[in-house]
């Protein structure tokens, strides 16, 4: 069977054959300034989206800006982020203006905008995730351009993405997209803070290592959004698990998409190998989860077995962290704290503590009922 061509350069994001489905994320600082919505800039971006559609690409937009727009309308300080209540109120007002602006500008090109407001739970709960996938698929099949934002009017600090970078990556997973383009206020990832002398833009990243993470700044350059380079690297991790390419480029310039793909100015994060691309949809969902209920610490033997595709057995567990129920998602990590995998627990935390270090043949005697063979079965586990 011939190998399917894959995205290898920024220019490939404009190739309908290599990238039939693209997610574009737009940050708050690009959409809103001190005068309100940057209508002319957005009109230029929408023209680029229309061009992508004309060459045969599906486009999904993840758009920030509701809180910033609403804060301006309501006269709230700190861009509407002074408190959770301010952010929720600002989002409720600003989302109407934001969705209306997208609908108007897309409509001028004969394109239909569709609004989806998502919370973290919509993509963390398996059934709701599948519902979101089905909705996105139907909208794209019908020729619409989905415009997605976090539902900040109801999201809380405990249950929220907190930035649209990771939301964009999770949406790309749900929509089975080929690439994510994060439009930001910087050209891409630099080897140090771009304000420092000698800072060098990194054009291609193959695998996100600790060295790469050390280059990231947690600060949003504009002070208006909630993300920074750290959240973008987290988004790249999520995309990588699903075999999806991700790029970061500067959206502050005119015709930003053309500048990124035609001039090659940006950073492209290449996805993992065939293992990532070939993962089952359920494992893609599991690997991208952001809320994990607990952790299982394993010894070196279990870590090696996991790397070879085995289930996690109680005999290899040295510590149980947190309080979780059967079926909850947990982290599996080694003694040094390195995350090895995510999985769905076959036992609750109390049962895991009773069983840790024991062979499977001992489980029935310990618990008093017929056991399941593994703490996390390999079918419910994904290496990260």
Walk me through the structure.
With 384 residues, this protein is α/β, with parallel strands linked by helices. It folds into two domains: 274 residues, Carbamate kinase (3-Layer(aba) Sandwich); 92 residues, PUA domain (Archaeosine Trna-guanine Transglycosylase, Chain: A, domain 4, Roll), CATH 2.30.130. It is 37% helix and 19% strand. The chain contains 15 helices and 15 strands. Strands 5-6-4-1-7-9-10-8 form an eight-stranded mixed sheet, with helices on both faces. The chain has a five-stranded mixed sheet with strand order 12-11-13-14-15, with helices on both faces. Helix 2 crosses helix 4. The longest helix has 24 residues. About 2% of the residues have low confidence.
Number of domains: 2
Which stretches are poorly predicted, pLDDT < 50 over at least 5 residues? 220-226
How would you name the CATH homologous superfamily of the largest domain?
Answer: Acetylglutamate kinase-like
In spatial order, strands of the major sheet run 5-6-4-1-7-9-10-8
The SSE string, one letter per element, is EHEEHEHHEHHEHEEHHEHEHHEHEEEHHE
Question: What is the number of beta strands?
Answer: 15
State the secondary-structure class: alpha/beta
Rounded average pLDDT: 87
- What level of helicity do the residues show? 25-40%
Strand content: 15-25%
Largest sheet: 8 strands, mixed
* Oligomer description: single chain
Fill in the CATH topology of the largest domain: Carbamate kinase
| Cα-atom radius of gyration | 22 Å
């Amino acid at each position: 069977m011939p190998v399917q061509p894959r995205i290898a350069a920024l220019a490939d994001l404009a190739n309908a054959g290599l990238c039939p489905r693209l997610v574009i994320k737009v940050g708050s600082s690009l959409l809103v300034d001190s005068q309100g919505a940057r209508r002319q800039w957005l009109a230029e971006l929408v023209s680029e989206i229309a061009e992508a559609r004309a060459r045969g690409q599906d486009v999904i937009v993840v758009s920030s800006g509701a809180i910033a727009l609403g804060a301006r309308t309501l006269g709230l300080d700190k861009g509407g982020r002074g408190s959770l209540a301010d952010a929720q109120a600002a989002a409720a007002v600003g989302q109407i203006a934001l969705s209306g602006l997208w609908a108007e500008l897309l409509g001028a090109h004969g394109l239909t905008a569709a609004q989806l407001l998502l919370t973290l739970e919509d993509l963390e709960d398996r059934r709701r995730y599948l519902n979101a996938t089905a909705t996105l698929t139907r909208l794209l099949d019908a020729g619409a351009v989905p415009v997605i934002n976090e539902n900040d009017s109801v999201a809380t600090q405990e249950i929220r993405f907190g930035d649209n970078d990771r939301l964009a990556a999770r949406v790309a997973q749900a929509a089975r997209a080929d690439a994510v383009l994060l439009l930001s206020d910087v050209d891409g990832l630099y080897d140090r803070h771009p304000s420092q002398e000698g800072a060098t833009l990194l054009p291609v990243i193959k695998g996100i290592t600790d060295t790469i993470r050390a280059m990231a700044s947690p600060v949003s350059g504009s002070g208006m959004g909630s993300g920074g380079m750290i959240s973008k690297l987290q988004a790249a991790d999520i995309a990588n698990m699903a075999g999806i390419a991700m790029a970061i480029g500067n959206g502050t310039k005119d015709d930003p998409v053309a500048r990124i793909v035609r001039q090659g100015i940006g950073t492209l994060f290449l996805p993992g190998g065939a293992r990532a691309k070939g993962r089952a949809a359920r494992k893609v969902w599991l690997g991208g989860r952001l809320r994990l209920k607990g952790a299982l610490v394993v010894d070196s033997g279990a870590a090696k077995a996991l790397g070879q595709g085995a289930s996690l057995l109680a005999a290899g567990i040295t510590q149980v962290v947190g309080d979780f129920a059967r079926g909850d998602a947990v982290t599996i990590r080694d003694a040094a704290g390195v995350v090895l995998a995510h999985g769905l627990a076959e036992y609750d935390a109390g049962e895991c503590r009773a069983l840790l270090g024991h062979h499977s043949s001992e489980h029935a005697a310990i618990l008093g009922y017929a056991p399941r063979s593994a703490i996390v079965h390999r079918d419910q586990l994904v290496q990260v």
